[in-house]
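step=predict obj=Tetratricopeptide repeat protein n=704
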Amino acid sequence: MMTTKKARQALKVAALVCIGTVITSTGWARIVDEVVLREDTEGFVINFELSVPMRFLSVSPTGQSRDFELQLAPDSVLLDEQPDDLVERILLSWNNDLWSPIKEIVYDGGSGEYPLIIVRFTDSVAVSVRGSSDQRSLEMNVVAPQFVTDKTADISAEQLIDTVVTQDSKLQTTLADARKAILDQDYSLAVRLLERLRNGVDAQAARRAGELIGWAYEKNGQLAQAKRAYEIFIEEYQSGEDVDRVRQYLAVMLTAARRVTQQRAAVTEKAGGWNSQFYGSFAQRYYRDETNPEDGDKELLRDQLVTDLDFVSRLKRGDLEIKSQFVGSHRHDFEDANESEFRPNIASVEVTDSSRGLFAKLGRQNRTTGGVLGRFDGLHAGYEVTRDTTVNVVYGLPVLTSAKYRINDAQDFYGVSVDVADLWAGWDWTGFYIAQDNQGMTDREAVGTELRYFDDKKSFFTLLDYDLHFSELNTFMFIGNWRFTSDTQFNLTLDYRHSPILTTSNAIQGQGVESLEELFDIFNDDELKQLALDRSAKTKTATASLTHRFNRKWQIIGELTATEFGDMPASGGVEAVEATDIEYFYSAQLVANSLFFNNDTLITGLRYGDTTNVDSYTFTANWRHTINRNFRINPRLRIDYRESKFDDGDRLVTKPYLRLDYSLSKWAKLEMDLGYEIWDETTGDGLDNNSDSTFISIGYRMQF
């Protein structure tokens, strides 16, 4: 039998082999790890899996709409750090083998103070959204009864053509030819004639042709083209008897297609074959940022081409499912090729055998429960002991921002956790033990528990992480959500933690070294342990937010945060860092829907920060408007002002911004961002530091 050390070394080798060419590291994942769609009785459900906890604040508008915005709030610590992935903007993909009227899903992290998930549909639907108690996922229920029907239209295509009345002889001839092509079942010719009518000047004929093009495609067996034509017609005209008929055409076609797909899957499964899914997206975007100091030469800050790729592959046979997932990007720097880097967020293979209650996931992945602190390279496996109890084991190598271009083979961890569902009515529980080493030295050893409660009106989540190695409480967190009415929601978060989280590796801070091993000959174990404690401040944060919807058009979001950052004493040649006072942040947002047009959204926000050293003020305005089915504009404005409490120093930053989106098709779009920044700063000793900056980005995204 292998020793524990040898077993862990074997697992480390397996993890390295699995990652292969994944040799750079990034501590952050894309905020939305995966979007999964499933059918429901009245429509469908969209599930958003998040890589970091995010509070769900609101969804707007209410009632029937084609565009919805889910507003999120990151942990207050993350909000201050503003990591790249938190403020990114990315087009998300989903399992599109299951049809839905979803047009696109976008994570937009740069919208005012808080990120958004924007979901756009080809037809009006109604939605409701709930965040999970632990803030690690969102569930969006979409009610689309118009697409769940087997009812057929009671009017023929020939009769529809005959309803067009015109005195134009050329138009009459085209109508007659289209009618004859339909009667002769020459549907390819019918499509060409109907396209001619749709692009003509007669509005009645164009609308009728738009209805019939999808029908002709369907009759010709071109189901993908038929579905797209139906969607375009519904999106363009939105209401009317003909739109209701097209919805019926689409619903009947999709119902039949689902039955065929299910039958094929059953035949494949019976024959011992695999049913497969494959979906994802590909994007490229060019960025160029320049700054022009008042007393200096213009400087190029960024000249990059960023290529993003993500995909999910699923193979299923009976109770066995194999899922492969990749999410990553390559950043090519034209100014300095040495700064170019490949940044994989996820590169994993996952196997589930539901009949045996077995699960295993190997590779680069994210986990924020069971004592795991986020992204790692390694193995997570689980066994369902009973229907409600699952035992998990995990082994991995933490992914660190400082470990670029290589696997972090200095640190490794292992842990075990137990998940119990329905411990009591509505309550779930997790208990865990986890240990981490750095070059043979204990880095972290902790036990902890997570307790969750969820019902229709409220949810609670409590996390406790106690470090046995340091004999210190590492993290305590409470998250509460109360939905008083359908229009009013209250959130409360209480957070106590060591920042950064306690590990012996914290000892390297300020020492001018890159690894803990370099300090082994300078400090003994107890001294390294004390250095780590000294470099990890105790932080306390409380956040309360209230969301209230006045009516379909207006809603308000208010938030108050109080936080205190503890001191870090001088030790090991590193200077002390003084504790902050209790710092307060107040913010309010006003959200307006259909303010100027029937499909626009305006979000305005104010934020005031009363901190130890400065007072800060932020104003944001974010307006989005869909010009037509394909073209959207999004002008924004952000103004930041801060003034010192100890001298005459102040800073004013004004940033107007414009985003343009153009959809080439349902699966391809062009994007352009233009921005300008004016920086006006006076230092404490009276010196001026003024500059202006410009930035532009342009790119495309494709889904498959």
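step=describe
Confidence is low (pLDDT under 50) at residues 1-28, 78-82.
step=end
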